[in-house]
Amino acid sequence: MIEYIPYIGVVAMILIGLYPILFRRNLIKIVIGISIIESGVNLFLIILGYRDGGVAPIFTSLPPGTTYPEEMVLPVPQALTLTSIVIGVAVLALMLSLVMHIYRKYGTLDVQKIRRLKE
Amino acid sequence: MTFLETLLAHSPALVIATPLLSAFLVPLVGRISPRIRDIFALVMLGVTGCFIGLLASDVLSHGSRVYVFGAKNLSVPLVRILFEVDSMGMFMAIITVMLAGIAVIYSWSFLQKQDGLDKYYTLLLLVTTSALGMELTGDIFNFFVFLEISCIASCALIAFWVEEGEALEAAFKYIVVSSIGALFVLFAIGLLYAQYNALNIATLAHLLQFSFLDKIILVLLLVSLGMKAGLAPMHMWIPDSYGRTPPSIVLLIMSATLASFYGILRVIFTMYGNVLTTPLRFSLPAHLIIGWILIALAIVSILIGVIMALIQTDLLRLIAYAAVAEIGYMFLAIGTSIAALGTTYATVALQGGVLHILNDAIDIGLLFLVAGAIYFVAKKRSLDDISGLARNMKYTTVFFIIGLLAVAGMPPLNGFTSKFLIYESVYQVNPILSIIALLGSILLLAVFIKVFYAAFLGPELPELKDVKEAPRSMLLAMGFLAALAVCIGLFPNIFLDALVKPAATALLDHAQYINMVVGGL
Amino acid sequence: MNISALSEVAVRVIVGSLGLAAFGIFFGLMLKGIDRKLSAHMQGRIGPPLRQPFRDVAKLFVKENIVPDQAIPWVFNLIPLVGLIGTISILIYLPLGGFPPLFSTAGDLIVVLYLLIIPSLCLVIGGFSSGSPYAIVGAQREMATMIAYEFPLAILIVSIAWNLLQKGMTQVFSFSTIVATPVWNQVSGPLGFIGFAILLVVLLLVTPAELSKIPFDAAEAETEIAGGLLVEYSGRNLAMFYLTDGVKTVVMASLIVAVFFPYNLSTLLGLGTYDGMVIDVVFFLFKVFLVILFSVTLIRVAIARLKIDQIVYTYWVPLTLVSLVGLILVMWDGVIMNFFSSA
Amino acid sequence: MFSLESGSGFWNPVLWVLALFILFLLFYGIRGFGKSTYKKGTEQTKVFLSGNKETSPEEMHVKASNLYWGFTTSMKSLYSLLRKMHTGNTSDYILWFVVVLAVVFLIMGVM
Questions:
Q1: Cα end-to-end span (Å), chain B
Q2: pLDDT for C5-40, tens place per residue?
Q3: Residues of B with CB below 8 A from D108's CB?
Q4: What pLDDT does A10 receive?
Q5: Which end of chain C is least crowded, N or C, by CB within 10 Å?
Q6: Which H/E stretch holds residue B430?
């Protein structure tokens, strides 16, 4: 049972992230929601690479006596997660700067009021 | 190896590297002189186009190619990225680079008086790079990375007219929609990796079992990429973002959108190609269900697109709704070809759908450029405020007429050729599909006749008495697309045989795609 | 392709299109004359002589060709011509008078459906380009009418092709297939027969709208917007539109004849080559006349003009539903018959 | 040659354009027999308004948003539905995504 908890956490984080996006009116909260979904997905990727008692997958500094590759954690998900985090930071920065500019133009952060573009 | 052979051998990498490097060289060149920078961007896109042409002629005559980034022979497999180039990818790459080149030519005059153009050209080249990457890559995670690059770069481009609140609003909506879409794609990729310990599309296709988890992955990929491609009812970001940016940027976002559409094709036809005929409950094959889901969404797209376009008064927004309808036609065609997999008319429908990608890029692109020309001379967005421009803008009027007839699918222009193939194949699945497609076309005609009247015909308004014809570079860009529309319309079979049929065959032949990688390099 | 084959195609195109132009215009104007004479008799008038439409055209050619100040001259002058040649060009795909089409493998039913848009489209653009408020109101009504009747028309054409496909034909949109296998011979039982009868009635009701005749002529509406989209046209430009109207009548009637009544008398009577041809042509013209009598003359004498929103409603709701019922009956036709024969 | 075939029909654009060109030459010639002159700058060239006074172009201009009145009126209920759907609210965009995702999940899950 205990090994399923991370997966439950992943689903929970994605759902928690969706909640403010769908039901909260503040733009900042929407951005936070996206950020939480992203953390959930990153968590998911990290879990995939987890190996009980494994070591970091660096060939040159393996602790003596480790059998390769069985005792190394999987390197690919870590690479994926790193990439995803970097992209996430860029998206987050872009979104926050947009929110800032929108506040200047609209004078509000209420998503219900920021809809000059409709129909 | 001669120089040309070396170039050819590395052209898949060069196709990506050239625009990527020049994207970051543009600001430096811009320091020398803005004029040189403008030409530099076009020249580098031309070089990319040359590589694509070289690669395409090779792929079309000698079959698909695999290009390896990283170790060719490694004891631990999979720590590498593969580019797998086939006719379909090349077809999309040609469209992408064509749209980017036209966008650059058009923006020479259109954005002349704006500042921040160094960054504009950088982002433009980045969007091109990302779309090309999505089309050439053979690795699903690499696909996601390019998807995110296109998302970030397009978002920054949409906010180009940053003084207008609406542009910011559109950009925010775009980034929310596309980053959530991309996150769900990443989630699906994680699920794939968890099951098969692989990220390569060909390897995944080889291993895929169509388990319950695979169904979830398919749904996630289909719906998220569908949202990025503008499938109704998730299309609402399209009018917002297309309607609030300079038309040259719309061409680039359109190429990113088409690349997402290509992603769907790749997922269904290649990645799930082996398991499409798996029987599900009630012994219905899987492809029937997937095909009908796509057809249903496509019908909704066509109807919502045209019906909403009919009541728009903002010209750019109106064309954006028409673009939604055109995307619906593509989905209708591929949905049919999936639902009826294996029949002859499924192949015809797929060819129609693939040809429609090109036609959509040309027609909608042309209309956006014309709309941009109107905005450029009249400085007005609403159709209610402009009138009688045909008196002073003869060339633009002719280009608009070509775009209008092409997008409504009137013979003998290019829109008719692909729609003809679509009508005469989809009715075999169910007659009502052709009927709705025909109806959508006539409504599109009505939509653009309204624009034709409002913008070009009608009485001459005093404040528009001395408007001038659009500048030469804009006319050149429009003229190129219009000439292409007429050429494809008059000689459809040449384009069909040379480009579309190989692309459709490559899509249907997933076994070959898989064997290129799985059979050993 | 060698030179002789190429030159043969060229000769066919040139001679064929000239001949069809003469045929279309002559019979179009004749039908107009007959229509006017008949409707006059129905209303208890004497009516104009049969050659009156020819006189009208001749008269228009000597009248002044006025271009209003508000119009855009190049569009205003070009559009009537484009409309006329576009309409005549439809005739090269249609089987006429028992003969096969001039180019039987160059265009099919879908192409004709699209080309049928051209005359109305040209009227619309002509109206918009003339700059008069009356003409603009008329033009947008014509466009709305066009959207309206295209829905039932599309249902009809696709269901005919679909039925042929179910009966194992190939090239189902081509006119040679449609003429060789008349729809009435391709039904398995009464359901299909009723379905096609419904679709025929719908097509007969689409015809007056396609030809802008009462009750669907809100676009012209002389009593209300003074001729609507034609209000500013005069002289030779108006003559072009007048001829377009005539040719359009022939096109629409030949389409109905080709789809629903492609039967010939010569094979039935076992006549020789030349007398058979004559009989076929006469019989074809008789069928065309009957179609026009029922779908134009009778309706326009009997019914008053509808408002534009009523036109749209009529076509999009009742007529579309009726033709969908027809389509469903045609689709069930084979299934139910198979069910009974197997049971 | 130059013919597009779909298996159910065919379309040859070149032949059609050729026929159109020949017809154009013919009728352009015939049209030339008609009278081409009119009296410029007189009452003739004013638009016909049933005797009402001609006003300025702005007032006579039928605006684009008023076009297709007949269609939008008879489709009123459809349009009010679609207008309600396009709220312009960012959350609703994602809501539609989630809804479509859920529906497609359901279909694929049941199957």
A1: 20
A2: 888 888 888 888 888 889 899 989 988 898 888 888
A3: 215-216, 218-219, 289
A4: 92
A5: C
A6: none
**How many domains are contained in chain C?**
1
Q: Which residue in B79, B175, B239 is closest to A94 by CB distance?
A: B175
Amino acid at C110: I
Q: What tokens were used for C66?
A: 């006025």
Q: How many CB pairs under 8 A join B and D?
A: 153
- Residues from chain D contacting residue C85 (CB–CB below 8 Å): 20, 23-24, 27
Please tell me what DSSP assigns to residue D64.
G
Taking the CA atoms of C329, C335, C340 and C343 in sequence, report the sign of the dihedral they define: negative
Q: Do D104 and B219 touch (CB under 8 A)?
A: yes
| Residue, of A68 and B91, whose pLDDT is higher | B91
| pLDDT tens digits, C170-222 | 888 888 888 888 887 777 777 888 888 888 888 888 888 888 877 877 777 66
Note down the domain range covering C195. Answer: 21-342
CB-based contact D108 B218, cutoff 8 Å: yes
> Is residue B287 domain-resident?
yes
Cβ of B236 and D63 within 8 Å?
Answer: no
Residue B510 is predicted with a pLDDT of 87
**Closest chain B C-alpha to A37 CA, distance in angstroms:** 8
C-alpha neighbours within 13 Å on the C-beta side of residue C333: 28
Q: Chains B and C: how many Cβ contacts under 8 Å? A: 84
Say whether B82 sits in a helix, a strand or coil. Answer: strand
User: Is the CB of residue B277 less than 8 Å from the CB of residue B325?
Assistant: no
**Cα(B312)–Cα(B319) distance, integer angstroms:** 9
Contact B284, B278 (CB under 8 A): no
Answer whether residue B224 is part of any domain. Answer: no
Q: Is the pLDDT of residue C234 over 90?
A: no
Query: How near does any CA of chain D get to the CA of A101, in Å?
Result: 16
Q: Which two tokens stand for residue B423?
A: 């009508």
Are C88 and C119 in contact by the 8 Å Cβ rule? The answer is no
- Give, for A33, the enclosing helix (H) or strand (E): helix A27-49
Tokens coding B144: 């996601």
Instruction: Give the closest of A38, A48, A69 to B193, CB-based.
Output: A48
Pick from B161, B158, D89, B168: which is nearest to A103 by CA?
A: B168
Q: What is the ipTM of this complex?
A: 0.91
Residues in Cβ contact with C304 at an 8 Å cutoff, skipping those fewer than 6 apart = C214, C215
Q: What are the beta bridge partners of residue B81?
A: B69
What residue numbers bound the domain in which B463 lies? Answer: 280-490
A14-62 per-position pLDDT tens digit: 999 999 999 988 999 999 999 999 999 999 988 887 777 777 777 777 7
d(C-alpha B360, C-alpha B418), whole Å: 10
pLDDT exceeds cutoff 90 at D34: no
CA dist B179 and A38 (Å) reads 9
Within-domain flag for B516: no
- Residue C228 is predicted with a pLDDT of 74
Number of domains in chain B: 1
Q: Does residue B376 contact residue B325 with C-beta atoms inside 8 Å?
A: no
Domain boundaries A2-57+67-106, CATH class: mainly alpha
C143 contacts D48? CB cut-off 8 A? no
- In this complex, do C86 and D20 lie within 8 Å of one another by their Cβ atoms? yes
Report the residue from D83, D89, D98 with minimal CB separation from A111.
Answer: D89
For residues C251 and C247, what is the distance between their CA atoms, to the nearest angstrom? 6
Record: contact B199-A98, CB cut-off 8 A? no
| Chain D interface mutation, best of A19, A23, A37, A112, highest count of D Cβ atoms under 10 Å | A112
Name subunits touching A (3+ CB pairs < 8 A): B, D
Note whether A touches C: 3 CB pairs or more under 8 A.
no
Does the distance separating the beta carbons of B427 and C158 come in below 8 Å? yes
**C258, part of any domain:** yes
